[in-house]
């Protein structure tokens, strides 16, 4: 019986295993993930019921071939069964509810297994691996080692990188929280101001969680580009004309010109840019993959924040909460760069350069929460599997250090010889360097299904060879 190791039991790893089970592949599957977040990952194991999905219910099915699967599941819940289906289809469900959904998808897969699959869940971290043509050895944080015929790295997001400041020793302070997805980041609050570093989607969840904890003090947030998050203003609206003009091999300049042309047209009729940008979505991965490294670098330095503003939006009622906090003087948004952070008896002294005024300013806070987004440069991680794999030349990163160099057709990780491994794979966020947009459920569910189908075919072909 072939053995498959899956590193990571969030959405991507879990759904890869679910599809293998449903295909009745004769194999032993071992998933490595801490018990607290198994099947749901960090994204769907929130510490607050107020953390909402950023995509409507009708688009969150775990199955590519069954687009209403999540919506149907929601409508069967006691809290929703008497509500209007179209209303719920266009609503933003709490992340916690989606986590329960994924857990039930997993439980159902196990119940329907026909005995061909053996499934193990190991509450240990994989810290290193060795790979050859015959097998892969995974090394665990408890000192044990396990061998597999195939391995899938579905490791999810890393903790954010610490911002560069003059006095990095501050990051040892108990009043600094590098990981905003842990509940302790918003617990045991005083009424001293809180500083959030970063103005993205995680910042929104953190602000809402602080108020949910009864925090009445001032909240500051800072990032180089300030606050540019938009609400969903055109739910269900589709813009189709742009797609008619997309051609294979378009340069970054041509793509930008095309977008600007159609944004101008949309605005003439009172429609903002988001539906136009959304119409790129079916083509984004191919466009990105065909860009040169120079074009990708230009995009990241000049256009990334504009793209993120148009693409990563929040529910209107979440947006209105933030607007209300700003109007009340409780939430302050800063466009600037950190210079230094020092802690003394008065609190945490933050020195930053205000990009609007062009001057250096100071603020005093009682806590700092890092919401700058997950670290993608594995060489800058303090430790762990991905850092060790890079250091040991088992895998390599793309030129922009966004993810793992991978064959996007097979999901085989490219080894040091330039060829894809036949037994070591990765999907999800680790493909960001190859595909750019690869973390939404829409992408993850398709990748999980495709990879599981490929693995099942390999297992069946090898089993047939043994029988013959």
TrEMBL record:
Q: Which Pfam families match?
A: NAD_binding_9
Q: Which Gene3D superfamilies match?
A: FAD/NAD(P)-binding domain (3.50.50.60)
Which stretch is the leader sequence?
A: none
FAD-dependent urate hydroxylase HpyO/Asp monooxygenase CreE-like FAD/NAD(P)-binding domain residues are 6-157
- The protein's name is FAD-dependent urate hydroxylase HpyO/Asp monooxygenase CreE-like FAD/NAD(P)-binding domain-containing protein
List the source organism.
Flavobacterium album
């Amino acid at each position: 019986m072939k053995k498959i190791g899956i590193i990571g039991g969030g959405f991507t790893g879990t759904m890869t295993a679910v599809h293998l089970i449903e295909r009745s592949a004769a194999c032993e599957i071992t998933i490595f993930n801490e018990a607290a977040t198994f099947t749901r990952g960090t994204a769907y194991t929130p510490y607050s019921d107020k953390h909402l999905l950023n995509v409507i219910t009708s688009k969150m099915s775990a199955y590519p071939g069954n687009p209403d699967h999540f919506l149907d599941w929601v409508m069967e819940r006691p809290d929703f069964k008497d509500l209007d289906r179209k209303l719920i289809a266009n609503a933003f469900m709490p992340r916690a509810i989606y986590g329960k959904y994924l857990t039930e998808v997993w439980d159902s897969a196990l119940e329907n297994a026909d005995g061909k699959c053996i499934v193990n869940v190991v509450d240990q971290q994989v810290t290193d691996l060795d790979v050859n043509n015959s097998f892969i050895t995974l090394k665990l944080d408890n000192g044990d080692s396990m061998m597999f015929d195939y391995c899938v790295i579905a490791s999810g997001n890393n903790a954010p990188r610490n911002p560069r400041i003059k006095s990095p020793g501050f990051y040892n302070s108990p009043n600094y929280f590098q990981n905003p997805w842990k509940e302790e980041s918003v617990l045991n609050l005083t009424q001293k101001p809180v500083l959030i570093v970063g103005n993205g989607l995680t910042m929104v969840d953190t602000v809402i969680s602080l108020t949910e904890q009864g925090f009445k003090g001032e909240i500051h947030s800072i990032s180089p580009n300030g606050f540019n998050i938009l609400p969903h203003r055109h739910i269900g609206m589709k813009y189709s004309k742009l797609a008619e003009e997309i051609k294979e091999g378009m340069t970054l300049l041509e793509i930008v010109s095309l977008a600007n042309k159609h944004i101008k047209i949309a605005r003439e009729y009172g429609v903002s840019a988001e539906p136009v940008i959304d119409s790129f979505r079916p083509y984004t991965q191919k466009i990105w993959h065909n860009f040169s490294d120079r074009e990708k670098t230009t995009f990241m330095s000049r256009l990334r924040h504009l793209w993120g503003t148009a693409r990563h939006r929040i529910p209107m009622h979440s947006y209105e909460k933030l607007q209300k906090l700003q109007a009340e003087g409780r939430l302050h948004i800063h466009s600037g760069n950190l210079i230094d952070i020092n802690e003394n008896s008065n609190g945490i002294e933050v020195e930053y350069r205000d990009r609007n005024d062009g001057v250096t300013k100071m603020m005093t806070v009682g806590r700092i929460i890092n919401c700058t987004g997950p670290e993608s440069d594995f060489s800058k991680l303090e430790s762990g599997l991905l850092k060790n794999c890079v250091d040991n030349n088992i895998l390599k990163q793309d030129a922009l250090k966004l993810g793992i160099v991978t064959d996007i057709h097979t999901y085989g990780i490219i080894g040091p010889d330039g060829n894809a491994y036949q037994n070591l794979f990765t999907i999800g966020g680790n493909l960001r360097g190859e595909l750019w947009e690869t973390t939404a459920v829409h992408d993850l569910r398709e990748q999980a299904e495709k990879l599981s189908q490929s693995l099942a075919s390999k297992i069946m072909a090898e089993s047939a060879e043994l029988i013959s």
